[in-house]
Design goal:
Pathway: Cofactor biosynthesis; adenosylcobalamin biosynthesis. This protein has two helices and four strands. The longest helix has 10 residues, at about 5-10. The chain has one domain: 2-Layer Sandwich (Methyltransferase, Cobalt-precorrin-4 Transmethylase, Domain 2), CATH 3.30.950. The protein starts with a helix and ends with a strand. A four-stranded mixed β-sheet has the order 3-1-2-4, with no helix packed on it. The chain is an alpha+beta fold.
């Protein structure tokens, strides 16, 4: 994934390092995982190999709506309903 490059360029072009960011792995499958962090924190998680493709990248204040709009969470089994906060 090139999300670390994307994050670096977004920061270089004026977005603050603490801009909310979400990565959704394996969206709409029973393996779906949502990773919430910032432009600065999530790229470190990517480099560490904790987040794998396929993943959808979401940037900005809309990330704060993830709990309210978690339409898929109810369709998941408890073992697969994962949400990870990666603020560091």
């Amino acid at each position: 994934m090139h999300n670390h490059l994307i994050s670096r360029e977004l920061i270089a072009h004026g977005l603050p390092c603490d801009t909310p960011l979400a990565l959704i792995e394996n969206g709409t499958t029973t393996a779906q995982q949502t990773h919430i962090g910032t432009l600065q924190a999530l790229p470190e998680a990517l480099i560490a190999g904790r987040i794998k493709s396929p993943a959808l990248l979401i940037v900005g204040s809309v990330v704060s709506l993830h709990e309210k709009l978690a339409w898929f969470k109810g369709a998941q089994t408890p073992a697969s309903a994962r949400h990870n906060d990666l603020h560091s």
